[in-house]
């Protein structure tokens, strides 16, 4: 999920201020500690890789992790578009209802509130869909699995303890930020795990998110494209989209304002649909409309998508995304067309937005690819995979 506003206040001397993707100001006050290096010795698992189980919840993906001592399981959204791990915490001043019980820090012997000049340190994060979380920062033990069979323990991990958060419906416990920013889970894993992560999303069943060497995506059929990490929008993984093919029609970004050489679209596990700037988006829509003979209808979901009356997805053209460096992703029709709650209506799963809102490559489009991030070689790799069969 893309963040509109983020404020993390700790006792820091270093202040970073940057414009957020939506033109708001981020006051990101960071304290980089050495705690990650001290935990390395404990987690020298001799080549073992950390991982967590994941599950699908309607249009987002959750991972299971444990917080506290004794370990307390939470289910939190996998979000490459943000930089904070937070979970709802007791006592709640304003918590949304969640499926799993709410974490109670008073039950944990390792929970430690961060202090800022004698006071609690606060955070506030507001996401692009206007949901938010507010609370206090703490250090706490976070535990996931590891391929060695031993748990992967991250002592003194900075987390947000949410006391006032909003969501649209009863749902998960919190968020796991997986951006390359300083507070994300992957960054806090420490130097032994240099930004290697992979996931495989499907619309059914369970899967895994992998870190470390097990997260390397390589082999036959793998395509890779460069990730661009800009300090103007810190933490986000940008890719460069050169063109989209709709059937045989090639819609180039070249010659449009969307064209770029160093990243024009964010890959985000926490956003469902795909977003293109309106001028380019309309070219893609025209190409789709050229192929489809069914009758058009207004988007019943209110998102202004391109929709048709049809009982079958078969009438639509195949869409291929061409990322820089020859990474051509031939997408399944499921990735690009969605049946709405109004039966007999299918829509193109691409929303047109207006810059400076960002272009986003969402999780629906990433379905049934094993997606690997490697922040040291600066590559994102895709391997076409039946994700619901991968770990069964
Ligand atoms: C951080 O680690 C470096 C290198 O190990 C060490 O020299 C420095 O004193 C540490 N700083 C703190 C605040 O622990
Ligand atoms: C929770 O935060 C929202 C948004 O900042 C605020 O309007 C509301 O008053 C807060 N609720 C409580 C109970 O503190
Ligand atoms: C907290 O601990 C008590 C006593 O062990 C237990 O009964 C309760 O279920 C725990 N609650 C949570 C939310 O962990
Ligand atoms: C993917 O795997 C699932 C579970 O094994 C299976 O039911 C499904 O038919 C497979 N899909 C394809 C397209 O092979």
From TrEMBL:
Q: Which residues form the Peptidase A1 domain?
A: 61-383
Subcellular location(s) of the protein: Secreted
* InterPro entries referenced in this protein's UniProt entry, alphabetically: Aspartic_peptidase_AS, Pepsin-like_plant, PEPTIDASE_A1, Peptidase_aspartic_dom_sf, Plant_Aspart_Prot_A1, TAXi_C, TAXi_N
List the protein's name.
Eukaryotic aspartyl protease family protein
Question: What family is reported?
Answer: Belongs to the peptidase A1 family.
Q: Tell me which CDD domains the record gives.
A: pepsin_A_like_plant
GO biological process terms, alphabetically, are: proteolysis
An example of a Gene Ontology cellular component annotation for this protein is: extracellular region
Q: Does the keyword Plastid apply?
A: no
Any idea which UniProt keywords this protein has?
Aspartyl protease, Glycoprotein, Hydrolase, Protease, Secreted, Signal
């Amino acid at each position: 999920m893309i963040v509109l506003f983020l404020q993390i206040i700790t006792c820091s001397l270093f202040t970073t201020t940057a414009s957020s993707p939506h033109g708001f100001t981020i006051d990101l006050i960071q304290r980089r500690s050495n705690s990650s290096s001290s935990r390395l010795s404990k987690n020298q698992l001799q080549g073992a890789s950390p991982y967590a189980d994941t599950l699908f919840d309607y249009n987002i993906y959750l991972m299971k992790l444990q917080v506290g001592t004794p370990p307390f399981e939470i289910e939190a959204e996998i979000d490459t578009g943000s930089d904070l791990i937070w979970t709802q915490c007791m006592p709640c001043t304003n918590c949304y209802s969640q499926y799993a019980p709410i974490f109670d820090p008073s039950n944990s012997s390792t929970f430690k509130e961060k202090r800022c000049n004698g006071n609690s340190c606060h955070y506030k994060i507001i996401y692009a869909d206007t949901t938010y979380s507010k609370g206090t920062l703490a250090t706490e033990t976070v535990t996931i699995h590891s391929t060695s069979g031993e748990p992967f323990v991250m002592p003194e991990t900075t987390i947000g303890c949410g006391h006032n958060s909003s969501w649209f419906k009863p749902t998960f416990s919190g968020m796991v930020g997986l951006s390359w920013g300083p507070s994300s889970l992957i960054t806090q894993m420490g130097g032994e795990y240099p930004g290697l992560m992979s996931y495989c999303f499907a619309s059914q069943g369970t899967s895994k998110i992998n870190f470390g060497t097990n997260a390397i995506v390589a082999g036959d059929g793998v395509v890779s494209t460069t990730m661009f990490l800009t300090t103007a929008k810190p933490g986000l993984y940008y890719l460069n989209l050169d063109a989209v093919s709709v059937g045989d029609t090639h819609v180039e970004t070249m010659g449009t304002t969307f064209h770029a050489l160093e990243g024009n679209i964010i890959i985000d596990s926490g956003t469902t649909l795909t977003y293109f700037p309106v001028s380019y988006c309309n070219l893609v829509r025209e190409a789709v409309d050229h192929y489809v003979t069914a009758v058009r209808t207004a988007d019943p979901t209110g998102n202004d998508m391109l929709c048709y009356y049809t009982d079958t997805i078969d009438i639509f053209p195949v869409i291929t995304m061409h990322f820089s460096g020859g990474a051509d992703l031939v997408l399944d029709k499921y990735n690009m067309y969605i049946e709405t709650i109004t039966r007999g209506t299918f829509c193109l799963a691409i929303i047109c937005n207006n810059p400076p809102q960002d272009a986003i490559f969402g999780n629906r489009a990433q379905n049934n690819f094993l997606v690997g991030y490697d922040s040291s070689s600066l590559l994102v790799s895709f391997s076409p995979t039946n994700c619901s069969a991968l770990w069964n």
